[in-house]
Design a protein that fits this description.
By secondary structure, this protein is mainly alpha-helical. The chain contains 6 helices and 3 strands, in the order αβααββααα. A hairpin with a 2-residue loop joins β2 and β3. α1 crosses α2.
């Protein structure tokens, strides 16, 4: 899989697909014209670029995702932690919480998540 990043406009485009899939290329062109003020050629160019990255596919004029929005952002998060914190989730959490105090609900949610891994 190529670049696991989306620019601001690519993110808006991807969200349109994730929210409306499956959709025909004609529907996507109309949607992008309405929502992004794009011409047909721009829509096809960006679709091709994101398809080459392995995020979407255009098969028989139907556009679907190869990665769900959740899967995409999970992969992006994993890559960030790996590149920035040598893959250490505890180091990431320590850095994150150094500037942002976690609420008791957030702490409980993290504990619950950790406990669910202990059970597996």
């Amino acid at each position: 899989m190529n670049e696991m990043k989306l620019g601001v406009i690519e993110s808006r485009f991807a969200d349109l697909i994730w929210q409306n899939e499956p959709l025909s290329t004609a529907e996507l062109v109309k949607l992008c014209e309405k929502e992004l003020n794009w011409k047909r050629t721009t829509t096809y160019t960006v679709l091709k670029r994101l398809s080459e990255r392995g995020i979407f596919q255009n098969s028989n004029h139907m556009v679907t995702s190869l990665l769900s929005k959740h899967e995409f952002y999970s992969l992006q998060s994993e890559k960030f932690v790996k590149e920035t914190f040598d893959g250490s989730l505890p180091a990431f959490l320590a850095a994150f919480t150094a500037r942002k105090k976690l609420s008791s609900d957030e702490i409980a949610e993290i504990r619950k998540l950790i406990d669910s891994f202990d059970e597996e």
